[in-house]
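A further point concerns the way the authors explain their paired sequence and structure data. An entry of this sort, consisting of the sequence and the corresponding backbone structure tokens, reads as follows:
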Amino acid sequence: MSDDGLPEAAWAYLRALDAELSDVPSGTAEEIVADVRAHIADALDSGRSADEVLAGLGAAPDVARQAREELGLPDQDRPERVGRTLSLVASAVGVLIAVCVSFLLPSTVPVEPIQADAGEQGVLGRLGPGIALLALLTLLPALVAAAPLVAPARVRAGSRLAGAIALTMFACAAGETGLYYFPLALVAWAAAFVPWAVRRGAGGRWWHVLAGGIVAMPGVLVAVASAGGSVGVGWVGAALWIAGPVAAGALCAYGFRAGYAVTALAGALVMILAMAERGFLFAAFWLFGGLYLALGAAGYAAARPADGDPATARAADGDPTSPPVDGDPAGAPGAPARPRPEPATEADPEAAAPAG
């Protein structure tokens, strides 16, 4: 049993309903879930079993569909939107990596000049027509990441998983070149896993806290090293390497989409700078940037936009069973209509009795 007396099956149902209502403004979705929770509690108090109550409610997608109809909202599939967004991000990362491998990486490798003035030519001139074939080959991982965007709906989830596995195998087997594709593999895994987690209502507050800890970790490590005297950090460095990650991590821990957006952009910037200024720590910065990009993109795609009320935005942290906001009764004027689940087929005699 849960802390408030509801069985675990009821909590699982409420989490599934909250996930299905992900495209509904967070405050309204919270009211709907609270209404269903109250209905379950009342039915259980009347002596009915949890299985009977949940069977009478119907499947969570059906209740969510009824809510959207009464609210006048289109019936959208949030997990599919999350997967599509992450597949687009993976495709963009694949194109970025292909450009880096095709044009920036070969320019640092000594080659035999094709002509006497090859030193004054660009990469295409130095490597000749072969670079065009290389560019096409380096785009293949991006095409693998983009394949789910055009795949039929029934095989879309499977194609994302297959693409993530293929990209991981390629990154591990391609030697030094494969190192460049590890960030793409990370985003591909996010595109395969996050929609599945969103559909099942998994994650929630612990996901945001874990993500925030990972994002803030570099800042904490630099701060500890600076305090111990092993690393010298000036004011600019402190703002960039300590305050920045810690602030972004705090935003992610509280479930703010802005924190995830900043994290993803910071990761992309670190990757670009690492490629432009290849040095001794290139691999560390490249992989670190890829992890930030994948984590930020996944959190941004999965987080629910708040509807402007900080008190009700807590539904974005995946806690569908939090109590209603004080002072916001279910029947407040102007509140959108909410679906009231029908009782079980075998109605409770007390509930079915006429009033008075």
About this structure: The two ends are 35 Å apart (CA to CA). Residues 78-104 form the longest helix (27 residues). DSSP finds 16 helices and no strands in the chain. The CA atoms of residues 264 and 296 lie 4 Å apart.
